[in-house]
C-alpha cells in the first residue's frame, strides 16, 4: 500500500514540530546556563519517584551510557546531582538531585509550561485528544516493528 500525501506530510510535520518546540524551549532556557542535554537530564531525573540508577536514567533520557556519564560529570561539577552507590547493586550508581537543582528545575518547568500554553493556544481539547490517540497508535506500531 503506497503512502498517502497526508501520511508523508504527517511525519515531516511531526519532526519539524519536535525540532522547533525543543529549539524554542532551548532558546528560552539559555539564561539558565544549561545545555539542552543537561536540562533534559534534570527534568527526567526530577520525574523519578526514587533515585534511578545511571542505566535507568539513560534509558529514560534516550541516550547511551557514555554520553550520560559525561553529562552527569558536568552536573556533579555544577553541584546539581550526586552519584551514590546503589545499595541493591554495588556495580551501579544511583543519581540523586542536590538541593540547588530544585529551584532550577522549578524555573525550567515554569518556562516550559509558559511555552506549552502559548503553543496550545487555539487548539481544541477534543482535537488534542484525537491527535494523542493517533500518536499512541503510531507508537504502538513502532513497538511492534
From TrEMBL:
InterPro entries: HTH_MarR-typ. Keywords: DNA-binding, Transcription, Transcription regulation. The keyword DNA-binding applies. Pfam families: MarR_2. Residues 7-140 form the HTH marR-type domain. PANTHER family: TRANSCRIPTIONAL REGULATOR, MARR, TRANSCRIPTIONAL REPRESSOR OF EMRAB OPERON. This is MarR family transcriptional regulator.
Amino acid at each position: 500500500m503506497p503512502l498517502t500525501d497526508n501520511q508523508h506530510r504527517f511525519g515531516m510535520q511531526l519532526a519539524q514540530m519536535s525540532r522547533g518546540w525543543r529549539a524554542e524551549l532551548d532558546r528560552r532556557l539559555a539564561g539558565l546556563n544549561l545545555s539542552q542535554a543537561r536540562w533534559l537530564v534534570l527534568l527526567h531525573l526530577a520525574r523519578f519517584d526514587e533515585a534511578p540508577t545511571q542505566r535507568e536514567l539513560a534509558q529514560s533520557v534516550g541516550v547511551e551510557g557514555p554520553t550520560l556519564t559525561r553529562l552527569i560529570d558536568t552536573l556533579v561539577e555544577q553541584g546539581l546531582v550526586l552519584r551514590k552507590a546503589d545499595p541493591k547493586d554495588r556495580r551501579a550508581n544511583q543519581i540523586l538531585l542536590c538541593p540547588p537543582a530544585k529551584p532550577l528545575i522549578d524555573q525550567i518547568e515554569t518556562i516550559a509550561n509558559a511555552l506549552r500554553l502559548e503553543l496550545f493556544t487555539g487548539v481544541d481539547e477534543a482535537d488534542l485528544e484525537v491527535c494523542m490517540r493517533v500518536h499512541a497508535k503510531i507508537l504502538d506500531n513502532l513497538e511492534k516493528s
